[in-house]
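REVIEWER CHECKLIST
Item 1: Sequence provided? yes
Item 2: Single chain? yes
Item 3: Sequence as submitted:
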Amino acid sequence: MSALKIKKGATSHSAYNLRPNFSDVIERHTLAVLVENEPGVLARVIGLFSGRGYNIDSLTVAEVDHTGHLSRITIVTSGTPQVIEQIKAQLGRIVSVHDVHDLTVEGASVERELAMFKVAGKGDHRVEALRLADIFRANVVDSTLESFVFEITGAPEKIDAFADLMRPLGLTEVARTGVAALSRGD
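Item 4: Structure as written out by the authors:
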């Protein structure tokens, strides 16, 4: 019998090493899922996440093709690379799903979100809230003697930053649409 020797530092090309090397780092991914616009599809997609204990950070759904009866579900989720690959594979197996795109790995994309903030305050707090809204390019969509409602659009990080600055000024309510995303270029 002859023994096979592997040089130090060399890699083995065994059939048992077919699994790619994944890391344990938690990553945020934006998935765009094109589905048939029919009852129960969203429930099946969400059921996939809840049944396996995956979290959804953001979820938006809208019909994008009226004649073809197609809707686009944009999901922002987090997980290890193995979990993200598993989610994409399982989404692709749902009968009503036409396409699954991981915008995070497919190249540059644009993400935007719409949010409304109700800020209650008087005096200096009102002045500071208006000043910050101007810096963040937020619009005043409602105003009373005791509160403002601001509308702001942008990347989720911009919206988070605006919320952090409004909290000490009297932030009382927040409504967010969730992330809408498209890949850039062709």
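Item 5: Key structural point noted by reviewer: The two ends are 58 Å apart (CA to CA).
Item 6: Recommendation: ____
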